[in-house]
Design a protein that fits this description.
The complex is a heterotrimer of chains A (180), B (730) and C (102). The relative contact order of chain A is 0.06. Chain A is globular, with a radius of gyration of 22 Å. Chain A is mostly helical. Chain A is 76% helix and 0% strand. The longest helix of chain B has 75 residues. In chain B, strand 1 and strand 2 form a beta hairpin. Chain B is an all-alpha fold. The N and C termini of chain B lie far apart (99 Å). Chain C is elongated, with a radius of gyration of 17 Å. In chain C, helix 1 packs antiparallel against helix 2 and helix 2 packs antiparallel against helix 3. In chain C, 75% of the residues lie in helices and 0% in strands. Classes of the chains: A mainly alpha (180), B mainly alpha (730), C mainly alpha (102). The interface between B and C is small, with 10 and 13 residues.
Chain lengths: 180, 730, 102
């Protein structure tokens, strides 16, 4: 086992364990914090895959924005969500079953591709700098991914507006809420 | 070219006036007057201009003013609408526009224009105290339409358009005779006139159809000025030994019989006196009855085809001559015994029309046309004069009852009071008398008209035209026709003298006659105008060989009207026997009548009744023709309608059939409902609905509203699909 | 060297754990967290395939970027929804938010 394999195994274990804690923790705040751990582990995996830029984005967006957002939401809604009782619903066994079956199915699929067990990453032709530049250019290149990029930007805009509209308190109840 | 266009415009102003009055002009009586009279003045001016152009044109007969446009495309042929002014329509146009204008102007006065409306007057009844006619504007609308019909008929260049004008006039005569529809007699008269003329019109329509079938055209010029067409028609045999030409001629003549009130369809015309007097003049002198004569004059070439002047008459001509002559005598005998001033004139009209028909029947085209013109003038004059008399009498009646009413409280004058309240018939000549002094203008104009009608020698128009007919009958070698017409002329002179004597001479025979007064200027002006024509119109047709004055004035009628025929008819040589005859019958009849009727006292009976006895009754009852027709046609028609058509055909057969169909449909419907609709259609519909409901009830459990359940279900099925694709498919 | 399969197995594991979170948790926020896990698993796959199979093409990374954008949008809207629902009904339990049913 090489050093890299060791790092990978450690990181993968951290990711899986923390992920299990995310879905299993009875306290939502804990679950959100465990989620941060998982996301960080994934960022490490990105570095292992020579995608440094993505790792940075992962940290900035997922951990810096989404995870924090989730934590805020959890705290905003925790008044009635007393951290007691089971966090799993009545059909949790069905969820477990589906998850296990899915995992088994994916492994079975993977087993059909034996070469993937031996393949090694080819050396990168370009430097990391060039790759980041290439990535940026490809997103605005008319011949490459400009359309998905623009669609994503529109999606972000719509999400921005939609989130504002949804989260804003209704006009008539706003005053009442303030009075309380 | 310009003239052709103007001819198109002649009939239009009265039509526009009719529309304008109908669509809003009726709100103002004054506006209606201006519209109608103004339109008639325009038509009059146009008509006279066209007439002047026609007179100045050489050989107008061969080259008439004509213009036409396509109207109804019928497969291979096209019916054209067009106008034609040849000598015949030119002179007809001349007298039509003059008489129409006179009548229009006269109507203004007759309907008391400008007077306030009497509160007691009701629409549909004549005003009884000198107020304005309640339906004043309507009257002008009707006569405008009437004038349009007549002018259309005159300027038309084909039989179809002529027939349209003809029928428009028929409608208007119906409307105008029943103008005072509040009176039952008027309502009956309008229906009678319409139905009676309709009998003739049906035959006429058959004639038109036959003519179109035979020749493929209805254009006058194409049929009547083409010898080939006429000869072909004359040589084609039809039914009853008649040639096709003869048959068509007789059918068209049937239209004339109806429209010009010839025996046996004469019964409507006397009853048409129910209309206002201008209407009577309009219908009986100027327009509608003239239209019938105009028709046979127009078709003179067709009627007389195969006939040589001086030769024996064809069957068609003989029929026409016999009916005409008979009608002339027959109607004049009735006129002798009538007491209603307008009825006398009505029968006189029938008689004079019979003259013209007889003239056509013996081939005297020019004489008939001449008499048509002069008769139109003097008969319009007489009718308008009689209207003036009636008008004066009605006013006199109103005045006398007013003065009597004032006298009533003071003294008990039984005689005066009785007289004042006795509503005398203002049209009965026995209530008149002595009007000469009360209504001088009316008297002298009426006298001129009467003398013209009687054929007073030399000075009146009637003499010249009547003399022309008599001399034609004599010259064509038709002694029977000649004698009959001479006898009719004698009677004509007699009843004219009787009428004038009873009406104007002697002493007043009623309070109304005593208080009668002259009519207004607007009514007298047309009288004077028409009396001028009643004298002068005759000078246009003086025979050039007439003693002393013959040749002094060119025989305009002979030369001008004669051109209307392809072959200009030879003027007959002058002969003395007919002249003497007309002198004798005219003067004799007038003298006799004057002797008998010049001064009858109040309450007198008709001396004629004493002398003739039952014959007089027969004459007064008009030979019982109304009763005869009532018995022959009206009652059987009622019986047929009531007993057969209504009670049997309608109630039993048709209703039974309908009820049977209805019942059968109900049965069938009930069966279908029970057997098919309820079990099959409804069952299927219910089944679909119930199934859907049941399915919904069953499956709605799935829709729990829980997101995670949906997702789980989705994943399960995606998993199944994937398993199938990956495990089973390869 | 690390075989490609390791990454894939890890991604599958993360995905299934996230799937369980989505299906089995009561709290709506927890469900959202499960979704984030699944998206991360996808991203791992994308980048791993890029690195191992088509390193010359930048497509894998570009897709990962798009997935980031989608994840951000989804989180923003989803959380806004949760807050809105919480304001209306005082609950964030997914099973209780069952207005859309018969």
């Amino acid at each position: 086992m090489t050093l890299l394999q060791g790092v990978f195994v450690v990181t993968a274990l951290a990711a899986v364990i923390s992920a299990v804690m995310v879905v299993a923790s009875p306290r939502l705040v804990h679950a959100a914090l465990w989620l941060v751990v998982t996301l960080g582990a994934v960022a490490v995996l990105f570095i292992l895959l020579d995608a440094g830029f993505l790792a940075m984005v992962q940290v900035v967006i997922y951990i810096g924005a989404i995870a924090i957002l989730i934590i805020f939401t959890v705290m905003l809604t925790r008044r009635v969500m007393a951290d007691s009782g089971s966090q799993a619903n009545r059909a949790w066994w069905l969820a477990v079953f589906i998850g296990v079956v899915m995992f088994a199915a994916l492994l079975a699929l993977l087993a059909q591709m034996p070469t993937w067990w031996q393949v090694t990453p080819p050396p990168l032709a370009a430097s990391a700098d060039f790759m980041v530049k290439d990535l940026g250019k490809s997103l605005v290149d008319l011949d490459r991914y400009v359309v998905p990029f623009e669609v994503a930007s529109v999606l972000l805009l719509a999400a921005l507006i939609g989130a504002i509209v949804l989260a804003r308190p209704p006009a008539e109840t706003a005053g009442k809420t303030g009075a309380e | 070219m310009t003239t052709d266009l103007l001819i198109w415009l002649i009939p239009l102003p009265p039509l526009l006036a009719f529309g304008a009055i109908l669509l809003g002009g009726y709100r103002s009586n004054r506006l209606s007057t201006w519209l109608a009279v103004g339109a008639m003045v325009i038509s009059w001016a146009l008509g006279l201009f066209v007439f002047a152009q026609a007179v100045q044109t050489d050989h107008l007969g061969a080259n008439p003013f004509t213009s036409s446009i396509p109207w109804l495309p019928l497969g291979t042929s096209v019916i054209e609408i067009g106008v034609l002014i040849d000598p015949l329509s030119a002179i007809t146009l001349f007298f039509v526009v003059w008489t129409c204008l006179a009548i229009f102007v006269y109507s203004i006065g007759y309907h008391n224009s400008g007077k306030p409306r009497d509160a007691e007057d009701v629409p549909g009844l004549p005003p009884h105290a000198g107020g304005i006619e309640p339906l004043y504007a309507r009257f002008f609308a009707f006569i405008s339409l009437f004038a349009f019909g007549m002018l259309t008929l005159v300027v038309s260049d084909n039989l179809l358009l002529l027939f349209i004008g003809w029928e428009i006039m028929g409608l208007c005569s119906y409307l105008l005779i029943g103008f005072w529809f509040g009176r039952e007699s008027a309502r009956k008269a309008m229906v009678k006139a319409f139905i009676t003329t309709r009998v003739g019109d049906v035959f006429m329509l058959l004639g038109i159809v036959a003519l179109y079938t035979a020749t493929g055209t209805l254009n006058f010029q194409e049929i009547l000025r083409s010898p080939e067409t006429l000869n072909r028609l004359a040589e084609t045999p039809a039914i009853l030994g008649l040639s096709l030409a003869g048959l068509i001629g007789l059918l068209l003549f049937a239209g004339t019989v109806g429209k010009s009130a010839q025996w046996p369809l004469h019964v409507w015309l006397p009853d048409a006196m129910e209309g206002p007097t201008p209407v009577s003049a309009m219908i009986h002198a100027a327009t509608m009855v003239s239209a019938g004569i105009y028709l046979i004059l127009r078709f003179f070439p067709l009627l007389t085809v195969g006939w040589q002047p001086g030769g024996p008459l064809t069957t068609t001509m003989a029929v026409i001559a016999v009916i005409g002559a008979f009608t002339a005598l027959f109607a004049s005998t009735i006129a002798v015994a009538q007491n209603d001033i307008k009825r006398v004139l009505a029968y006189s009209t029938i008689s004079q029309l019979g003259y013209m028909v007889a003239a056509v029947g013996i081939g005297a085209f020019v004489a008939a046309a001449f008499h048509l013109v002069t008769h139109a003038f003097f008969k319009a004059l007489l009718f308008l004069g009689s209207g003036s008399v009636i008008h004066g009498m009605e006013h006199g009646q109103a005045a006398s009852s007013k003065s009597a009413a004032q006298a009533m409280p003071g003294q008990e004058g039984p005689a005066g009071a009785h007289e004042a309240h006795d509503h005398v018939d203002a049209q009965d000549m026995w209530n008149m008398g002595g009007l000469r002094r009360r209504m001088p203008w009316t008297f002298y104009t009426f006298l001129i008209g009467g003398l013209a009608l009687a054929g007073f020698p030399i000075v009146t128009a009637g003499f010249w035209s009547k003399d022309e007919i008599l001399s034609s009958a004599f010259g064509q070698g038709q002694p029977v026709v000649f004698v009959v017409l001479a006898a009719a002329a004698l009677l004509t002179a007699f009843y004219t003298a009787r009428q004038i004597g009873l009406t104007f001479l002697g002493k007043p025979r009623s309070a109304a006659a005593e208080h009668a007064h002259e009519s207004g200027r607007v009514m007298l002006l047309p009288l004077v105008l028409l009396s001028l024509f009643s004298i002068a119109a005759g000078w246009a047709g003086i025979h050039h060989e007439f003693p002393l004055i013959g040749g002094a004035i060119p025989n305009f009628v002979e030369e001008f009207v004669g051109q209307a025929l392809t072959e200009h008819p030879e003027a007959l040589p002058f002969a003395f026997p007919p002249l003497l005859t007309s002198l004798v019958v005219s003067l004799g009849g007038l003298g006799l009548g004057f002797l008998v009727y010049r001064n009858l006292p109040r309450g007198a009976t008709d001396p004629l009744a004493r002398w003739l006895g039952p014959v007089h009754v027969l004459l007064r009852r008009k030979y019982y023709f109304d009763e005869l027709y009532d018995f022959l046609f009206v009652r059987p028609a009622y019986w047929f309608a009531e007993t057969f058509v209504y009670a049997w055909v309608d109630r039993k057969v048709i209703d039974g059939l309908l009820h049977g169909v209805g019942r059968a449909s109900l049965r069938l419907g009930g069966w279908l409902r029970r057997a098919i609709d309820l079990p099959v259609v409804n069952g299927f519909g219910d089944l679909v609905g119930e199934t859907t409901k049941a399915a919904g009830r069953t499956f709605r459990v799935i829709q729990s509203g829980r997101v995670q359940a949906y997702l789980a279900a989705g994943l399960l099925f995606v998993g199944l699909l994937l398993s199938f694709l990956l495990l089973v498919k390869p | 060297m690390i075989p490609l399969s390791w990454y894939l197995v890890l991604a599958a594991a993360l995905f299934c754990i996230g799937l369980y979170g989505v299906l089995g948790r009561r709290n709506a926020v927890a469900i959202l967290m499960g979704i984030e896990l699944m998206l991360n698993a996808v991203n791992i796959n994308l980048v791993a395939f890029w690195r191992y199979l088509t390193p010359a093409l930048i497509a894998g990374q570009a897709f990962a970027i798009i997935v980031f954008a989608v994840a951000a949008s989804e989180a923003a809207v989803g959380l806004a929804l949760i807050i809105s629902i919480y304001r209306q009904r005082s609950t964030v339990i997914a099973e209780e938010i069952d207005l859309m049913k018969w």
